[in-house]
Amino acid sequence: MKQLMKLYLVMLILTTTLFAQAGTKLIGFNAQTIGRAGTSIGNFDSNELMMTNPAGISFLKKSSLDLDLSFMFPTLHFKNNLNDIDGDKNTFPLPTVSYVNNYDDKFSWGIGLFTAGGMGADFKLKHALYGTALQEYHSKLALMQGGISAAYKFNENLSVGVSAHLVYSMLEFAMPFSLNPLSMAGVANPMTGMTFGQMFAAPNSVGGFGYTEVTASAKMNDLSALGFNGKIGLAYKVSDELSFGLSYSSPIDLTYKNGTATMDMTQQLNDAFGKAVMGWMMQNPGKSQQEAQAAIMGMFAQLGIDMSKGVVANYDLNVDLSFPQIIGFGISYKPMSNLKLSSDVEILSWESAFDNMTLKLSNGKNANINKMMGNNGAFDIEFPLKWKNSVLVKIGAEYCVTKELVLRGGFAHNQNPVPESTIFPVFPAIVENHLTIGAGYKLSENFIVNAAFEMGLNNSLKASNPSLIANEYSNSTSELATTLIHFSFSYSF
Length: 493
Description:
By secondary structure, the protein is mainly beta. It has a single domain, classed as Porin, CATH 2.40.160.60. 13% of the residues lie in helices and 50% in strands. The chain is built from seven helices and 21 strands. The chain has helices at 2-14, 31-34, 49-52, 196-201, 266-283, 289-302, 367-373, and strands at residues 64-79, 84-86, 92-101, 107-125, 135-153, 158-179, 187-189, 194-195, 214-237, 242-249, 252-264, 312-323, 326-336, 339-348, 356-362, 379-384, 390-400, 405-414, 433-442, 447-462, 477-492. Strands 1-3-4-5-6-9-10-13-14-17-18-19-20-21 form a 14-stranded antiparallel β-barrel. A two-stranded antiparallel ribbon has the order 7-8. A hairpin with a 4-residue loop joins strand 5 and strand 6. Helix 5 packs across helix 6. The protein is elongated. The model is unreliable at 1-20 (pLDDT under 50).
């Protein structure tokens, strides 16, 4: 078992970006259940129950070891007034390993490590501030969790169970990062009290730059977080034909620590400098461009900005982000001996989790940026997400062709939690509909192989105007589709 855990951790290190299936949540965690659209809360037949309804492991017929590996192939597209382009083509492995001990008639326990979900994207896009130079747009949010589960069977029909999971997550961003100019609270003119933000936002007619946003090239790396997730479940088996499940998964509060951020405002300041030079030359006809540049450099110096020091700063970075509580209900029914139908309904409370992402920057040493921001190199940014609560509905079927061969199929629908006001291409968690097919084959009395194919059907979302993230996303369109293949190997004892 120790060797399996070491192998899993190595695979996690090699795994890069994960993609959302229901927000940031995958619809299932092994090939057996994904073949029937991930239905498992009321189906007491898989180690996946440790993630969805731990009470159900009481009804597993044998102890078992499961190894699962999935591969995801996302397809992304983004369109705005400067771009109409596909995202990078990537392939991502999603590993899982789990063990359930079910030797005792009353008490069962299990241990597992699961790839829980995430999101991310990679683009090279044009941005109005940077001219024809393509800019990097990158994100990675990966979420893994694992730990122990235990269940107690009160009688032949009723069981309760709990899971206690440690959660590990990684986070990265790289893209042009825009802010309201008024966030630059440093005083530019002590005589009037005008801030740099007011100066950058003021119209040209009154000596300002007329910006509705200020933009920096941003990279945020090396962020990781540890947290806790608790689950509790109820399993009720009416008969061999009918069963119900109810589950609750607690919210996950994470603080990503020990990250680094680089903010480069060079292009923004160069643009402002160019506007100032042009304005000075219009006011002083006959003067050369060199004279204008010298005059403007002197004006910036009077504002406390030393152009020779540039406007690139490195920061220490922490990020606060939460993941939602989940309430789930599931039912499984066998209308005939070789056919099983099942359905799960899950309520995901995104509104209280993905409202804002708090970026905490500190230890910035660039005097020019500190002067403009009006701080000593430490400040917080509230990055708006404003996600909506969603309901995930799964419907699946399982047909036993022979004692050895099982065929599966299913459909899952998730309400898109991402609003038009905050959709942007590197956080594209908008897939709603999933079609799945799968099969299982019993190679021996104790060894079963399962495989599944999943399609997250293409969905597009047009951003509002204005966008809460940045002007470049106003009226833009983001698209996402995913294709996944799943394999699992189960050995019972």
